[in-house]
Design goal:
By secondary structure, the chain is an alpha+beta fold. The protein has seven helices and five strands, in the order βββαααβααβαα. The strands form two sheets. It has a three-stranded antiparallel beta sheet, sandwiched between helices. It is globular.
Length: 212
């Protein structure tokens, strides 16, 4: 069983979904990921998680024992996540105290866990995350894991940037990433065009040399 709600934010509607295991999905509602898509994704993830412990749950509690109590727990977790996110956008908090249950591979979960160690107002490069999880050569794989983070903001994938300080990608869009970093006081929010500016500068020098 799952529960979900929509949190209205300055960046648009935010989908919050939970199962009995914890909060499983926080994602911006946007083109290609509307509420129906996000609800279906949540249900698939919760079902996959449930398959892993169904035998133990049935043996200790019985399937019928969950009932309304489980729904109340799931709805309560989604509601609490919504309250904490509302407080974040109201500038009343930057940290979260929520039970999380994102579904992914062992490597993805290791990357997501490392993301949670990045304090608000700071950033880390993909290369540094790769080193932290013991896979320094796996920068590309780290980037893919960051991009597949299903619990936005609470697992702060927006705090990961390029080694040159550029914002690089963000599933929710670079405008949202820039806004979130600025809201947290990260100075990189003002340097999203570093890579492009340097390239343009180099191009300009080459043109002047050719003209000369």
């Amino acid at each position: 069983m799952t529960a979900w709600e929509i949190v209205e934010t300055p960046l648009g509607p935010l989908f919050v979904g939970a199962s009995s295991a914890g909060v499983q999905r926080i994602d911006f509602v946007r083109e290609g990921r509307d509420e129906a898509w996000l609800r279906a994704a949540l249900d698939r993830e919760a079902a996959a998680l449930a398959r892993g412990d169904r035998a133990r749950t049935a043996a200790t509690h019985g399937d019928a024992a969950r009932g309304d109590a489980a729904l109340a727990s799931e709805a309560g977790q989604a509601a609490e996540a919504g309250r904490q996110l509302a407080a974040y956008f109201a500038r009343a908090r930057v940290d979260f105290a929520l039970p999380l249950a994102p579904q992914g591979t062992a490597f993805q979960r290791a990357v997501w866990s490392e993301l949670r160690t990045i304090p608000a107002g700071e950033t880390r490069s993909y290369a540094r995350i790769a080193e932290a999880v013991g896979r320094p050569a796996a920068v590309r794989a780290v980037g893919q894991a960051v991009g597949r983070n299903p619990v936005s903001i609470v697992v702060p994938c927006h705090r990961v940037i390029g080694s040159d300080g550029s914002l690089t990608g963000y599933a929710g869009g670079l405008d949202r990433k820039r806004w979130l970093l600025a809201r947290e006081g990260a100075p990189v929010a003002q340097r999203s065009g570093v890579k492009r500016s340097r390239a343009a500068h180099a191009s300009g020098r080459a043109s002047r040399s050719a003209a000369a």
